[in-house]
Write a structure and sequence with these properties.
It contains 12 helices and 17 strands. The relative contact order is 0.16. A hairpin with a 3-residue loop joins strand 16 and strand 17 (361-364). It is globular and about 70 Å long. The chain is α/β, with parallel strands linked by helices. It binds pyridoxal-5'-phosphate.
Length: 398
Amino acid sequence: MSGSALYETFARAPLAFERGEGSWLVTDKGERYLDFAAGIAVNSLGHGHPHLVSALKDQADKLWHVSNLYEIPGQRRLGERLVDATFADKVFFTNSGAEALECAIKTVRRYHFVTGHPERYRVITFEGAFHGRTLATIAAGGQYKYLEGFGPKVDGFDQVPFDDIDAAEKLIGPETAAILLEPLQGEGGIRSFPVQSLKRLRQLCDKHGLLLIFDEVQCGIGRTGRLFAHEWAGVTPDLMAIAKGIGGGFPMGACLATDEAARGMTAGVHGTTFGGNPLAMAVGNAVLDVVLAEGFLEEVGRKALLFKQGLAAIADEYPEVIEGIRGDGLMLGIKCSMPNGTVNGALRDQHLLAVPAGDNVIRLLPPLTVTEPDIQEGLKRIRGAAKGLSEAVAAAAK
Ligand SMILES: *Cc1c(COP(=O)(O)O)cnc(C)c1O
Protein backbone atom coordinates (compact mmCIF):
# COMPACT_ATOMS: atom_id res chain seq x y z
CA MET A 1 0.00 0.00 0.00
CA SER A 2 1.95 3.02 -1.19
CA GLY A 3 0.93 6.51 -0.21
CA SER A 4 0.03 5.58 3.36
CA ALA A 5 1.43 7.78 6.11
CA LEU A 6 1.63 4.78 8.43
CA TYR A 7 4.56 2.53 9.25
CA GLU A 8 4.43 -0.48 6.97
CA THR A 9 4.65 -2.85 9.96
CA PHE A 10 1.22 -4.41 9.41
CA ALA A 11 0.17 -6.44 6.36
CA ARG A 12 -3.39 -5.18 6.55
CA ALA A 13 -6.41 -6.86 4.98
CA PRO A 14 -8.28 -4.46 2.68
CA LEU A 15 -11.21 -4.17 5.07
CA ALA A 16 -12.33 -1.11 7.03
CA PHE A 17 -14.98 -1.60 9.67
CA GLU A 18 -17.35 1.15 10.62
CA ARG A 19 -19.36 -0.34 13.46
CA GLY A 20 -19.92 -3.49 15.42
CA GLU A 21 -22.84 -5.28 17.07
CA GLY A 22 -22.14 -8.23 19.35
CA SER A 23 -20.15 -10.79 17.35
CA TRP A 24 -20.59 -8.90 14.09
CA LEU A 25 -18.59 -6.20 12.33
CA VAL A 26 -19.93 -4.05 9.51
CA THR A 27 -17.66 -2.53 6.85
CA ASP A 28 -17.89 0.94 5.38
CA LYS A 29 -19.64 -0.74 2.42
CA GLY A 30 -22.27 -2.30 4.68
CA GLU A 31 -20.90 -5.87 4.47
CA ARG A 32 -21.28 -7.98 7.62
CA TYR A 33 -18.46 -10.14 8.99
CA LEU A 34 -18.73 -12.66 11.81
CA ASP A 35 -15.94 -11.60 14.16
CA PHE A 36 -14.25 -14.69 15.61
CA ALA A 37 -11.00 -12.73 15.95
CA ALA A 38 -12.44 -10.26 18.49
CA GLY A 39 -9.47 -7.90 18.15
CA ILE A 40 -7.27 -10.88 19.12
CA ALA A 41 -9.21 -11.77 22.27
CA VAL A 42 -9.63 -8.09 23.20
CA ASN A 43 -13.36 -7.62 22.53
CA SER A 44 -14.23 -10.06 25.28
CA LEU A 45 -17.86 -8.88 25.40
CA GLY A 46 -18.20 -8.30 21.66
CA HIS A 47 -18.91 -4.95 20.07
CA GLY A 48 -21.17 -2.26 21.53
CA HIS A 49 -22.01 -4.13 24.74
CA PRO A 50 -24.59 -1.83 26.40
CA HIS A 51 -23.10 -2.14 29.90
CA LEU A 52 -19.60 -1.19 28.67
CA VAL A 53 -20.90 1.64 26.49
CA SER A 54 -22.85 3.20 29.35
CA ALA A 55 -19.95 2.78 31.81
CA LEU A 56 -17.62 4.57 29.39
CA LYS A 57 -20.14 7.34 28.63
CA ASP A 58 -20.94 7.94 32.30
CA GLN A 59 -17.25 8.20 33.18
CA ALA A 60 -16.56 10.41 30.14
CA ASP A 61 -19.06 12.93 31.52
CA LYS A 62 -17.27 13.03 34.87
CA LEU A 63 -13.51 12.66 34.55
CA TRP A 64 -11.17 11.13 31.97
CA HIS A 65 -7.75 11.28 33.47
CA VAL A 66 -5.95 12.16 36.66
CA SER A 67 -2.39 11.31 37.50
CA ASN A 68 -1.42 8.46 39.79
CA LEU A 69 -0.20 11.26 42.06
CA TYR A 70 -3.79 11.16 43.41
CA GLU A 71 -6.25 8.56 44.64
CA ILE A 72 -8.27 6.96 41.84
CA PRO A 73 -11.29 5.24 43.44
CA GLY A 74 -12.14 3.15 40.37
CA GLN A 75 -8.57 1.84 40.34
CA ARG A 76 -8.71 0.92 44.00
CA ARG A 77 -12.00 -0.89 43.40
CA LEU A 78 -10.81 -2.84 40.33
CA GLY A 79 -7.62 -3.76 42.17
CA GLU A 80 -9.62 -5.11 45.12
CA ARG A 81 -11.91 -7.09 42.84
CA LEU A 82 -8.96 -8.68 41.01
CA VAL A 83 -7.34 -9.51 44.34
CA ASP A 84 -10.60 -11.04 45.66
CA ALA A 85 -10.93 -13.17 42.53
CA THR A 86 -7.33 -14.46 42.36
CA PHE A 87 -4.13 -15.58 44.15
CA ALA A 88 -2.92 -11.95 44.16
CA ASP A 89 -2.58 -9.37 46.95
CA LYS A 90 -1.35 -6.44 44.85
CA VAL A 91 -2.06 -4.99 41.40
CA PHE A 92 -0.26 -2.49 39.14
CA PHE A 93 -2.30 -1.15 36.19
CA THR A 94 -0.75 -0.61 32.76
CA ASN A 95 -1.94 0.29 29.25
CA SER A 96 -0.95 -2.91 27.47
CA GLY A 97 0.11 -6.51 27.80
CA ALA A 98 3.79 -5.84 27.13
CA GLU A 99 3.86 -3.24 29.90
CA ALA A 100 2.21 -5.69 32.29
CA LEU A 101 5.00 -8.17 31.46
CA GLU A 102 7.65 -5.48 31.88
CA CYS A 103 6.20 -4.78 35.31
CA ALA A 104 6.31 -8.49 36.18
CA ILE A 105 9.94 -8.80 35.05
CA LYS A 106 10.95 -5.68 36.99
CA THR A 107 9.06 -6.95 40.06
CA VAL A 108 11.03 -10.22 39.89
CA ARG A 109 14.38 -8.43 39.68
CA ARG A 110 13.49 -6.09 42.55
CA TYR A 111 12.30 -9.03 44.66
CA HIS A 112 15.66 -10.76 44.42
CA PHE A 113 17.46 -7.43 44.87
CA VAL A 114 15.71 -6.61 48.15
CA THR A 115 15.99 -10.18 49.44
CA GLY A 116 19.76 -10.12 49.07
CA HIS A 117 20.20 -11.85 45.70
CA PRO A 118 20.83 -9.13 43.12
CA GLU A 119 22.69 -11.75 41.06
CA ARG A 120 19.38 -13.46 40.34
CA TYR A 121 17.94 -11.76 37.29
CA ARG A 122 17.58 -14.41 34.57
CA VAL A 123 14.15 -15.65 33.46
CA ILE A 124 13.48 -19.02 31.81
CA THR A 125 10.90 -18.99 29.00
CA PHE A 126 9.51 -21.55 26.51
CA GLU A 127 9.71 -21.76 22.73
CA GLY A 128 6.65 -20.43 20.93
CA ALA A 129 6.13 -17.83 23.66
CA PHE A 130 4.82 -14.37 22.93
CA HIS A 131 5.08 -11.69 25.58
CA GLY A 132 4.92 -8.42 23.59
CA ARG A 133 7.07 -6.15 21.41
CA THR A 134 9.14 -4.05 23.80
CA LEU A 135 12.88 -4.71 23.88
CA ALA A 136 12.63 -6.88 27.01
CA THR A 137 9.52 -8.76 25.95
CA ILE A 138 10.90 -9.69 22.50
CA ALA A 139 13.92 -11.07 24.36
CA ALA A 140 11.57 -13.00 26.66
CA GLY A 141 9.58 -14.35 23.69
CA GLY A 142 12.85 -15.38 22.05
CA GLN A 143 11.44 -15.47 18.52
CA TYR A 144 14.08 -14.62 15.95
CA LYS A 145 11.56 -12.98 13.60
CA TYR A 146 10.81 -10.35 16.28
CA LEU A 147 14.42 -9.91 17.45
CA GLU A 148 16.19 -9.61 14.09
CA GLY A 149 17.67 -6.20 13.45
CA PHE A 150 16.81 -4.72 16.81
CA GLY A 151 20.31 -4.72 18.21
CA PRO A 152 21.69 -6.63 21.16
CA LYS A 153 19.02 -8.84 22.69
CA VAL A 154 18.15 -7.67 26.20
CA ASP A 155 20.13 -9.87 28.56
CA GLY A 156 18.50 -12.15 31.07
CA PHE A 157 16.27 -14.56 29.16
CA ASP A 158 16.98 -18.24 28.53
CA GLN A 159 14.69 -20.43 26.49
CA VAL A 160 13.89 -24.14 26.49
CA PRO A 161 11.66 -26.17 24.12
CA PHE A 162 7.91 -25.98 24.67
CA ASP A 163 6.80 -27.99 27.71
CA ASP A 164 10.32 -29.38 28.28
CA ILE A 165 10.29 -29.18 32.08
CA ASP A 166 13.44 -31.31 32.40
CA ALA A 167 15.33 -28.81 30.25
CA ALA A 168 13.99 -25.96 32.40
CA GLU A 169 15.17 -27.72 35.55
CA LYS A 170 18.66 -28.28 34.09
CA LEU A 171 18.93 -24.62 33.19
CA ILE A 172 18.26 -23.35 36.73
CA GLY A 173 21.45 -21.81 38.09
CA PRO A 174 22.60 -19.25 40.66
CA GLU A 175 21.45 -16.39 38.41
CA THR A 176 17.96 -17.73 37.72
CA ALA A 177 15.20 -15.51 39.07
CA ALA A 178 11.93 -16.75 37.57
CA ILE A 179 10.10 -18.94 35.09
CA LEU A 180 7.67 -17.23 32.71
CA LEU A 181 5.01 -18.90 30.56
CA GLU A 182 1.56 -18.63 29.03
CA PRO A 183 -0.44 -21.55 30.47
CA LEU A 184 -2.12 -21.66 27.06
CA GLN A 185 0.04 -20.18 24.28
CA GLY A 186 -1.89 -17.97 21.86
CA GLU A 187 0.44 -16.64 19.18
CA GLY A 188 2.51 -19.85 19.47
CA GLY A 189 -0.41 -21.85 18.07
CA ILE A 190 -2.96 -22.54 20.85
CA ARG A 191 -0.73 -24.92 22.78
CA SER A 192 -1.47 -25.64 26.42
CA PHE A 193 0.88 -26.81 29.13
CA PRO A 194 -0.39 -30.05 30.69
CA VAL A 195 -1.59 -29.76 34.29
CA GLN A 196 1.31 -31.95 35.43
CA SER A 197 3.83 -29.57 33.84
CA LEU A 198 2.34 -26.55 35.60
CA LYS A 199 2.49 -28.45 38.91
CA ARG A 200 6.13 -29.38 38.33
CA LEU A 201 7.04 -25.80 37.45
CA ARG A 202 5.42 -24.60 40.68
CA GLN A 203 7.45 -27.19 42.64
CA LEU A 204 10.67 -26.22 40.86
CA CYS A 205 10.14 -22.55 41.67
CA ASP A 206 9.43 -23.34 45.34
CA LYS A 207 12.47 -25.62 45.60
CA HIS A 208 14.89 -23.12 44.06
CA GLY A 209 13.45 -19.87 45.43
CA LEU A 210 12.26 -18.67 42.00
CA LEU A 211 9.12 -16.72 41.16
CA LEU A 212 6.57 -18.21 38.77
CA ILE A 213 5.05 -15.74 36.29
CA PHE A 214 1.98 -16.57 34.22
CA ASP A 215 1.24 -14.52 31.12
CA GLU A 216 -2.56 -14.61 30.85
CA VAL A 217 -2.79 -11.59 28.58
CA GLN A 218 -4.62 -13.71 25.98
CA CYS A 219 -5.95 -16.75 27.85
CA GLY A 220 -7.25 -14.85 30.91
CA ILE A 221 -10.56 -13.07 31.71
CA GLY A 222 -12.87 -15.98 31.03
CA ARG A 223 -11.41 -17.16 27.70
CA THR A 224 -11.11 -20.78 28.81
CA GLY A 225 -14.33 -20.86 30.85
CA ARG A 226 -12.60 -20.02 34.14
CA LEU A 227 -11.63 -16.46 35.06
CA PHE A 228 -7.98 -17.47 34.53
CA ALA A 229 -6.66 -20.46 32.60
CA HIS A 230 -4.31 -21.60 35.37
CA GLU A 231 -7.29 -22.23 37.66
CA TRP A 232 -7.91 -25.47 35.74
CA ALA A 233 -4.55 -26.77 37.00
CA GLY A 234 -5.03 -25.76 40.63
CA VAL A 235 -1.63 -24.08 40.51
CA THR A 236 -1.10 -20.41 41.35
CA PRO A 237 1.75 -18.16 40.20
CA ASP A 238 3.56 -15.45 42.16
CA LEU A 239 2.94 -12.93 39.40
CA MET A 240 0.54 -12.68 36.49
CA ALA A 241 0.27 -10.32 33.52
CA ILE A 242 -3.17 -9.62 32.10
CA ALA A 243 -4.48 -7.23 29.42
CA LYS A 244 -6.56 -7.75 26.25
CA GLY A 245 -9.94 -9.03 27.55
CA ILE A 246 -9.99 -7.01 30.79
CA GLY A 247 -10.50 -3.79 28.81
CA GLY A 248 -13.09 -5.17 26.38
CA GLY A 249 -11.52 -2.89 23.75
CA PHE A 250 -10.27 -0.10 26.00
CA PRO A 251 -6.45 -0.31 26.15
CA MET A 252 -5.45 -1.56 29.57
CA GLY A 253 -3.47 -4.22 31.37
CA ALA A 254 -2.33 -5.17 34.85
CA CYS A 255 0.37 -6.99 36.72
CA LEU A 256 -0.91 -9.03 39.66
CA ALA A 257 1.41 -10.16 42.46
CA THR A 258 1.49 -11.77 45.87
CA ASP A 259 2.55 -9.52 48.76
CA GLU A 260 5.82 -11.45 48.94
CA ALA A 261 6.64 -11.08 45.23
CA ALA A 262 5.81 -7.35 45.29
CA ARG A 263 8.07 -6.69 48.32
CA GLY A 264 10.57 -4.66 46.37
CA MET A 265 8.04 -2.45 44.59
CA THR A 266 8.13 0.49 46.96
CA ALA A 267 7.30 4.17 46.41
CA GLY A 268 9.05 5.63 43.38
CA VAL A 269 10.63 2.49 41.92
CA HIS A 270 8.09 2.08 39.08
CA GLY A 271 5.44 4.22 37.48
CA THR A 272 3.12 4.99 34.58
CA THR A 273 1.38 8.10 33.28
CA PHE A 274 -1.77 6.59 31.83
CA GLY A 275 -2.00 3.22 33.57
CA GLY A 276 -5.13 2.84 35.69
CA ASN A 277 -6.76 6.11 34.67
CA PRO A 278 -10.45 6.69 35.45
CA LEU A 279 -11.75 5.93 31.93
CA ALA A 280 -9.90 2.61 31.74
CA MET A 281 -10.94 1.65 35.25
CA ALA A 282 -14.62 2.37 34.56
CA VAL A 283 -14.51 -0.03 31.61
CA GLY A 284 -12.44 -2.66 33.44
CA ASN A 285 -14.90 -2.67 36.32
CA ALA A 286 -17.78 -2.97 33.86
CA VAL A 287 -16.13 -5.96 32.15
CA LEU A 288 -15.79 -7.68 35.52
CA ASP A 289 -19.47 -6.92 36.34
CA VAL A 290 -20.40 -9.09 33.36
CA VAL A 291 -17.73 -11.80 33.49
CA LEU A 292 -18.11 -12.39 37.26
CA ALA A 293 -21.92 -12.43 37.12
CA GLU A 294 -23.53 -15.67 38.26
CA GLY A 295 -23.52 -18.27 35.49
CA PHE A 296 -21.54 -16.28 32.88
CA LEU A 297 -18.45 -18.49 32.85
CA GLU A 298 -20.54 -21.69 32.89
CA GLU A 299 -22.28 -20.38 29.80
CA VAL A 300 -18.91 -19.73 28.13
CA GLY A 301 -17.99 -23.35 28.84
CA ARG A 302 -21.26 -24.67 27.47
CA LYS A 303 -21.00 -22.66 24.22
CA ALA A 304 -17.33 -23.57 23.87
CA LEU A 305 -18.14 -27.28 24.01
CA LEU A 306 -20.76 -26.90 21.27
CA PHE A 307 -18.28 -24.97 19.13
CA LYS A 308 -15.45 -27.44 19.64
CA GLN A 309 -17.65 -30.44 18.86
CA GLY A 310 -18.85 -28.75 15.67
CA LEU A 311 -15.26 -27.99 14.66
CA ALA A 312 -14.17 -31.57 15.35
CA ALA A 313 -16.93 -32.83 13.04
CA ILE A 314 -15.69 -30.52 10.26
CA ALA A 315 -12.11 -31.71 10.83
CA ASP A 316 -13.29 -35.33 10.47
CA GLU A 317 -15.03 -34.47 7.22
CA TYR A 318 -12.13 -32.55 5.65
CA PRO A 319 -8.79 -33.98 6.92
CA GLU A 320 -7.07 -32.66 3.76
CA VAL A 321 -7.81 -29.15 5.09
CA ILE A 322 -7.92 -29.58 8.87
CA GLU A 323 -5.54 -31.81 10.77
CA GLY A 324 -7.15 -31.28 14.16
CA ILE A 325 -8.77 -28.97 16.69
CA ARG A 326 -7.02 -27.81 19.85
CA GLY A 327 -7.43 -25.38 22.72
CA ASP A 328 -9.78 -24.73 25.60
CA GLY A 329 -12.97 -22.77 26.02
CA LEU A 330 -13.39 -20.04 23.42
CA MET A 331 -9.66 -20.05 22.66
CA LEU A 332 -9.61 -22.70 19.93
CA GLY A 333 -7.15 -23.53 17.19
CA ILE A 334 -7.54 -25.20 13.82
CA LYS A 335 -4.33 -27.05 13.03
CA CYS A 336 -4.23 -26.85 9.25
CA SER A 337 -3.17 -29.53 6.74
CA MET A 338 -2.40 -26.80 4.19
CA PRO A 339 -0.84 -23.35 4.74
CA ASN A 340 -2.85 -21.54 7.42
CA GLY A 341 -2.80 -18.35 5.35
CA THR A 342 -4.77 -20.17 2.63
CA VAL A 343 -7.33 -21.35 5.16
CA ASN A 344 -7.57 -17.89 6.71
CA GLY A 345 -8.20 -16.40 3.26
CA ALA A 346 -10.99 -18.91 2.58
CA LEU A 347 -12.59 -18.06 5.93
CA ARG A 348 -12.44 -14.37 5.11
CA ASP A 349 -14.10 -15.09 1.76
CA GLN A 350 -16.92 -16.56 3.86
CA HIS A 351 -16.98 -13.30 5.85
CA LEU A 352 -15.61 -14.94 8.96
CA LEU A 353 -12.68 -13.30 10.76
CA ALA A 354 -10.06 -15.48 12.48
CA VAL A 355 -6.38 -15.01 13.40
CA PRO A 356 -3.40 -16.99 12.05
CA ALA A 357 -0.94 -18.24 14.69
CA GLY A 358 2.33 -20.17 14.86
CA ASP A 359 2.57 -23.94 14.22
CA ASN A 360 0.32 -23.56 11.14
CA VAL A 361 -2.76 -22.89 13.25
CA ILE A 362 -5.78 -20.60 12.82
CA ARG A 363 -7.05 -19.09 16.08
CA LEU A 364 -10.77 -18.80 16.75
CA LEU A 365 -11.45 -16.33 19.55
CA PRO A 366 -15.12 -15.34 19.45
CA PRO A 367 -16.43 -12.84 21.99
CA LEU A 368 -17.34 -14.57 25.26
CA THR A 369 -20.85 -13.25 24.64
CA VAL A 370 -21.15 -15.11 21.31
CA THR A 371 -24.67 -16.52 20.90
CA GLU A 372 -25.51 -20.09 19.96
CA PRO A 373 -26.94 -19.02 16.57
CA ASP A 374 -23.67 -17.12 15.92
CA ILE A 375 -21.72 -20.29 16.68
CA GLN A 376 -23.92 -22.30 14.30
CA GLU A 377 -23.45 -19.62 11.64
CA GLY A 378 -19.69 -19.68 12.25
CA LEU A 379 -19.58 -23.46 11.88
CA LYS A 380 -21.56 -23.19 8.64
CA ARG A 381 -19.03 -20.72 7.25
CA ILE A 382 -16.03 -22.75 8.39
CA ARG A 383 -17.54 -25.86 6.79
CA GLY A 384 -18.12 -23.85 3.60
CA ALA A 385 -14.48 -22.75 3.54
CA ALA A 386 -13.22 -26.29 4.21
CA LYS A 387 -15.46 -27.71 1.47
CA GLY A 388 -14.20 -25.18 -1.06
CA LEU A 389 -10.56 -25.84 -0.20
CA SER A 390 -11.11 -29.59 -0.28
CA GLU A 391 -12.65 -29.37 -3.77
CA ALA A 392 -9.72 -27.23 -4.93
CA VAL A 393 -7.28 -29.87 -3.65
CA ALA A 394 -9.21 -32.63 -5.46
CA ALA A 395 -9.31 -30.59 -8.72
CA ALA A 396 -5.57 -29.93 -8.55
CA ALA A 397 -4.86 -33.64 -8.10
CA LYS A 398 -6.66 -34.56 -11.33
C1 LIG B 1 -0.97 -9.80 23.06
C2 LIG B 1 -0.07 -10.46 24.03
C3 LIG B 1 0.93 -9.76 24.71
C4 LIG B 1 1.27 -8.33 24.40
O1 LIG B 1 0.21 -7.46 24.64
P1 LIG B 1 0.25 -5.97 24.00
O2 LIG B 1 -0.97 -5.32 24.59
O3 LIG B 1 0.20 -6.14 22.53
O4 LIG B 1 1.50 -5.34 24.45
C5 LIG B 1 1.66 -10.44 25.67
N1 LIG B 1 1.43 -11.72 25.94
C6 LIG B 1 0.47 -12.43 25.32
C7 LIG B 1 0.24 -13.86 25.69
C8 LIG B 1 -0.30 -11.84 24.33
O5 LIG B 1 -1.23 -12.55 23.67
